[in-house]
């Protein structure tokens, strides 16, 4: 029989800066929520997503660390890392664990603690996602690399910053209804354009912030899942693609080929097309990435992603509800954890448990987790089973 | 049909200190060797094992980085980490990838670059395997933790340092025949006892050194493997167990419960017992760990591991040939890479291609990769298929 995986429980901490909480404390809050939500009485393995704990906290070995903190030492446990896609690839590793037949119920948790450091420290940490010797050493920052993309995109497709700024505006709008979101404040396009310049053309409100958070999901084989929940959410596809580590190694910088490739493999695996997707959680670490994702994932032609926003198609009531909990921009982006937040949020939507964030009649959702400057992309397509 | 995994190619760099080589350079040498050795024309995924690159090199995202350097950007690629067991758990993740049915041929490579730093820097890096807030912050070092174990073991079982020192003597003896080994120098028990004290009772020659290295293996589903090689080596079992992150959290410190648990699960999965094992690669980062492993893996009663050494049973011609290429002590211990060296070495032995290091008539081999102070253990049992 073909094995299939399903989400049976989720947990998420609020995302905050300056909480003073440590990695374990954050992780355990999310993990316990997910375990309680699922009702499972055991886990066969633990997968931990995280990017920066070695650099920022001088702490590795989060697998055994979190297994111990959960009182579940003994279980197979390890960390999976792919920069800001660490959460997404941890879910992928967990899905493989289930499909391998070696595990039936697994916990995936991801955590990042970014606050409590200076901006240069966090900036250096984020640049670990790019090539240290050839790129990071030049002094360019991650927002700088994204600014290059934004400028090229705007020039190439004659798209204005005003148009792109609709993306963070949408995210802030959605986050108003999410009590766990880091930035619950309505903004408009002019707020974005008038916010402080960070790396031309990107301004402060084009950029996700620095925050601490953890998210967790319990995954189980579908036949096992049905024992614990009446409404498991099927993992219809879990794919990962890579691209060159560095931006300068690519023929074009206005498309993330890894997004296209991972999404196309996911659609094929799920036997679905973008037309079947009701709900998107996409990796808008910077506004331009949100717009590009709409295109790379197959929802708009190249250069026309902002039209979807202008036409209201990405709103919760639109054709393709996007970042319904606020996305990286407004829900928050604790980098290695964001990929698990996304999958958790899609699952909550498909179970119709999203409260004020609920997207009506959503049956299929897609989460896109991006590592580095589009160098790793993990795609998950989830489908409600009720 | 039950899927099964097999090793179809291996690659290993020599282990050295002060080479000035970078992570990519090391990784690619091993990966290309493994690919050439296997004859495969594609890989479906890349798994990278590494512990300290975030801390020492300010470099994460090794999955996409190494995929790019191999000219294979596009493949799913991510890093797997569990301190010094990173290599072992990366192999475990790769085996799951194959058994999941999502991949048919995968590359696992692991790398660590430890030289070029001060001893305090490397010491701090290694302590990332323990609890930063509660243990590392006290100033205790990893050799210090192992010294506690050694002292307790010697007191509890009335075993002398002379007896334990047989372990590094054996490893140095075996490394004489391994051109890739870091320490190719014969030593005797008195050399160990007279070497500089590091953390009482452990002396310099009780401890593995600081080195740079990378190892890689190509794994394939068994039915696919047969297209590429006449002598694939079956992965009969791949297990991971965890234990508490910290030593102080355990009822006893002279047994690594994670070793026992992972080994017992592996024997069960492979339908084998310790009696069936001809060949061991064990994690002797410190001499005491080599002795404890002989016991925890089922080859000697508790407290009597050194008797096996005294009786010559661990020599290449003995009943249970141990660390035939020199082990962590003498082959070298580039921490996150060691687990892949071990599996590669077992595979080479079972293919009867170990040259002067060859163990006669070996059919079944076991590799034990340990992370932290016994907090993660990965066990692989390999079986020749010829």
Describe the structure.
The structure is a homodimer of 386-residue chains. Chain A is globular, with a radius of gyration of 19 Å. In chain A, helix 4 (86-99) crosses helix 15 (338-350). In chain A, the strands form two sheets. A ten-stranded mixed beta sheet of chain A has the order 3-2-4-7-1-8-12-11-9-10, with helices on both faces. Helices cover 36% and strands 19% of the residues of chain A. The first copy, chain A, is an alpha/beta fold and 386 residues long. In chain A, strand 11 and strand 12 form a beta hairpin. The first copy, chain A, has a single domain (5-117, 208-384), classed as Peroxisomal Thiolase, Chain A, domain 1 (3-Layer(aba) Sandwich), CATH 3.40.47.10. The interface between A and B is large, with 68 and 68 residues.
Helical coverage of chain A, percent range = 25-40%
Please compute the radius of gyration of chain A using only Cα atoms. 19 Å
Low-confidence stretches of chain A: none
Ends apart, CA distance between termini of chain A? 21 Å
**What is the CATH topology descriptor of chain A?**
Peroxisomal Thiolase, Chain A, domain 1
Shape of chain A: globular
* Count, helices of chain A: 15
